[in-house]
């Protein structure tokens, strides 16, 4: 075998081995979440706007991400009596990408109530958390 052919084969073998090792390195780096908390989300909550005293409101929450995907995390719900600002009750639920329907505590005091919903994601998630709220009027019944 001529000397040039041997050097060419050896060089080709070394370069292909080096590129194979480099491509496996980039595959490992791509597996990690490089930018956690960069995909914005929008919370869409809803429920009744009027309720009789002594009943518990039915509420729901849906989290819409920008683009496709289903964010997962936890949500916290607070029931706040508007005239005094006191929190009547809190509720924690898990969220797995679909609309969540739930019942709140029985609201006995007539007046305006604020239902505040907060969605939080794990630290390593690419999705951001979001907040939403709506008001509810409890009437004597």
How would you describe what is shown here?
It is built from one helix and eight strands. It has 141 residues and is an alpha+beta fold. The protein has two domains: 1-32; 41-139, Immunoglobulin-like (Sandwich), CATH 2.60.40.10. It is rod-shaped. Mean pLDDT is 85; it is low at 20-30.
The coarse silhouette is rod-shaped
Biggest sheet descriptor = 5 strands, mixed
- Stated plainly, the CATH topology of the largest domain is called Immunoglobulin-like
Task: Give the N-to-C terminal Cα separation.
Answer: 101 Å
- The CATH architecture of the largest domain can be named as Sandwich
CATH class of the largest domain: Mainly Beta
> What is the radius of gyration?
27 Å
Helix content: 10-25%
User: Number of domains in the coordinates?
Assistant: 2
Structural classification: alpha+beta
Number of helix segments? 1
Q: H/E order of the elements? A: HEEEEEEEE
Average pLDDT, all residues: 85
Strand content range:
35-45%
In CATH, what is the homologous superfamily of the largest domain? Answer: Immunoglobulins
Query: Within the largest sheet, what's the order of strands?
Result: 2-8-7-4-5
Number of strands: 8
Q: Which stretches are low in confidence, meaning pLDDT under 50 for 5 or more residues running? A: 20-30
Oligomer: single chain
Describe the secondary-structure layout:
Blueprint: H1 3-31, E1 41-46, E2 50-52, E3 58-65, E4 73-81, E5 87-95, E6 100-103, E7 111-120, E8 130-139
Parallel strand pairs: 2-8
Antiparallel strand pairs: 1-3, 3-6, 4-5, 4-7, 7-8
Question: What's the quick description here?
Answer:
The protein has 141 residues and is of the alpha+beta class. The protein has one helix spanning 3-31; strands at residues 41-46, 50-52, 58-65, 73-81, 87-95, 100-103, 111-120, 130-139.
């Amino acid at each position: 075998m001529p000397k040039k052919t041997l050097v060419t084969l050896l060089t080709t073998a070394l370069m292909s081995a080096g590129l194979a090792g480099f491509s496996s390195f980039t595959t490992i780096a791509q597996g990690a979440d490089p930018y956690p908390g960069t995909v914005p989300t929008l919370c869409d909550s809803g429920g009744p706007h009027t309720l009789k005293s002594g009943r518990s409101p039915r509420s729901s929450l849906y989290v819409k991400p920008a683009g496709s995907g289903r964010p997962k995390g936890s949500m916290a719900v607070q029931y706040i009596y508007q005239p005094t600002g006191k929190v009547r009750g809190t509720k924690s639920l898990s969220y797995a990408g679909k609309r969540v329907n739930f019942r709140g505590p029985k609201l006995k005091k007539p007046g305006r109530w604020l239902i505040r919903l907060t969605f939080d994601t794990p630290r390593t998630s690419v999705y951001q958390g979001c907040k939403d709220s709506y008001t509810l009027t409890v009437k004597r019944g």
